[in-house]
UniProtKB/TrEMBL annotation:
<dbReference type="InterPro" id="IPR003593">
    <property type="entry name" value="AAA+_ATPase"/>
</dbReference>
<feature type="domain" description="ABC transporter">
    <location>
        <begin position="5"/>
        <end position="234"/>
    </location>
</feature>
<keyword id="KW-0813">Transport</keyword>
<dbReference type="InterPro" id="IPR003439">
    <property type="entry name" value="ABC_transporter-like_ATP-bd"/>
</dbReference>
<keyword id="KW-1003">Cell membrane</keyword>
<dbReference type="InterPro" id="IPR027417">
    <property type="entry name" value="P-loop_NTPase"/>
</dbReference>
<keyword id="KW-0547">Nucleotide-binding</keyword>
<dbReference type="GO" id="GO:0005524">
    <property type="term" value="F:ATP binding"/>
</dbReference>
<keyword id="KW-0472">Membrane</keyword>
<dbReference type="Pfam" id="PF00005">
    <property type="entry name" value="ABC_tran"/>
</dbReference>
<protein>
    <submittedName>
        <fullName>ABC transporter ATP-binding protein</fullName>
    </submittedName>
</protein>
<dbReference type="InterPro" id="IPR050763">
    <property type="entry name" value="ABC_transporter_ATP-binding"/>
</dbReference>
<keyword id="KW-0067">ATP-binding</keyword>
<dbReference type="InterPro" id="IPR017871">
    <property type="entry name" value="ABC_transporter-like_CS"/>
</dbReference>
Length: 309
């Protein structure tokens, strides 16, 4: 397995004494979309800035496709594209000129065909002569991605790429991310939109106070931690739950009009039909029922709370 990014024992302690990252290790194979999740202040941007050579680490190492980002900074940085959270400030530069300039910063010869291909892939070609100040916030974010791709990086960091973008444009950007993945680009994505991580990422990592508390395939997390919840609406309030139903781990609502439990298929789970029969045997009448899958957001919130954030 070829690694696009390898982080070992990474630490960052600021002069104030604040510990932003502590003993963090992570390996990301080439061609993967990896979502880095966590609350504000968890260390997501610090990790990205260290990997991109913007911030100096207090300890540990970062390698990009085998090149150390400190000892072999030029080789490592040439392979990285970064889409930061901040919108561009070059208000009077045209879209095409700004993207071409970004390519030149990495020592690449002008390549109008490459710039055109990038702009077309991001639906920016029609705006190529527009000054940045004339673009919407969503289009400016597309320009940031175009700049990051101008020098043909193999590892792309997307730091909150769809923040402030409307739903329609966000979906278009999802399609762009999938297209980049198909082209072999490795993508590290930070986002507060959990739906985004669930839709795009092969794996997720959850950061809590500078520590990785979970790194798992997204599908595996949803399968093992994203269980189904069954809610039963009762015809009459249930004053007390019969002892004979204790094995079902049913929970009563505050108004005693609902019962709920985990109904993920597993050993010991009787199934909804047998459950209703057991309730009926105790004279508990059910008026309605519904099931709901736990979202990735629910899982991440639980993980962060369990670790004391």
């Amino acid at each position: 397995m070829t690694l696009a990014l390898q982080i070992a024992g990474l630490r960052k302690v600021y002069d104030s004494g604040f510990v932003a990252l502590q003993d963090l290790s992570l390996s990301v194979p080439r061609g993967e979309v990896f979502a880095l999740l966590g609350p504000n202040g968890a260390g997501k941007s610090t990790l990205i800035n260290i990997a991109c050579g913007i911030v100096r680490a207090s300890g540990g190492t970062v390698q990009v496709e085998g090149f150390d980002t400190v000892r072999e900074a030029r080789q490592a940085r040439a392979r990285i594209g970064l889409v930061p959270q901040e919108l561009p400030s070059d208000a009077f530069t045209t879209v095409q000129a700004g993207v071409a300039y970004s390519r030149g910063l990495f020592g690449h010869a002008p390549n109008p065909a490459r710039i055109e291909a990038v702009l077309r892939s991001l639906s920016l070609w029609d705006q190529r002569r527009s000054p940045m100040k004339a673009l919407s916030g969503g289009m400016k974010r597309r320009v940031l991605i175009a700049k990051a791709l101008s020098h043909e990086p193999s590892l792309l960091f997307l730091d909150e790429p769809t923040a402030g973008v409307d739903v329609s444009l966000r979906r278009d950007m999802w399609a762009t991310i999938r297209q980049l993945r198909e082209q072999g680009v490795t993508i590290i994505l930070t986002t507060h939109y959990l739906e985004e991580a669930q839709a795009l990422a092969d794996r997720i990592g959850v950061l809590r106070r500078g520590e990785l508390v979970l790194v798992r395939p997204t599908a595996e997390v949803m399968r093992e931690l994203g269980g189904k919840r069954l809610t039963l609406q009762l015809q009459q309030p249930l004053v007390e739950l019969p002892e004979g139903l204790a094995d079902l781990a049913l929970q009563r609502s505050a108004d005693a009009m609902q019962l709920s439990c985990d109904c993920t298929p597993r050993e010991g789970w009787p199934g909804i039909g047998p459950l209703l029969q057991r309730l009926a045997a105790y004279g508990i009448a059910v008026q309605d029922l519904q099931t709901a899958q736990r979202s990735l957001e629910d899982i991440v919130i639980d993980l962060v709370e369990e670790t004391g954030a």
